[in-house]
Specification:
By secondary structure, this protein is α+β, with helices and mostly antiparallel strands. Helices cover 20% and strands 28% of the residues. It is built from three helices and six strands. The strands form two sheets. Strands 1-4-5-6 form a four-stranded antiparallel beta sheet. The radius of gyration is 18 Å and the shape is globular. One of its GO terms (molecular function) is ATP binding. InterPro entries: Aa-tRNA-synt_II, aa-tRNA-synth_II, aa-tRNA-synth_II/BPL/LPL, Asp-tRNA_synthase_2, Asp/Asn-tRNA-synth_IIb. It comes from Lotharella oceanica. It catalyses: tRNA(Asp) + L-aspartate + ATP = L-aspartyl-tRNA(Asp) + AMP + diphosphate.
Amino acid sequence: KYGIDLFTVLGYPKQIRPFYTMEDPNDARYTCSFDIFLRGQEIASGAQRVHEPEVLRQRLKEANVSEASLRDYVASFEWGTPPHGGAGFGMERLVMLFTGAGNIRECSMFPRDPKRLTP
């Protein structure tokens, strides 16, 4: 439609992202997160993560997640964690797009789906 193959979607709503995703400092309804699309296919997803233990505890409460179940995770932030983030790329998706494969299972060494759980 716009004549481009690659685009990025920024700032997803807080309700649809994990509790550990940093809120947008300009609008708490949104997050510091993104997805990267190539030819209409999502190839990566990423975000800045919450790095302050107090904020993390509040986000756990908002998400109705038991802090006890993530005690060690939350405790790891007590020693000081720098601001951080990252992204995960779907390598099989990239291979599928660049090779023109008809199905992502053709691009995975050991594909899994509801009908195939073992090699």
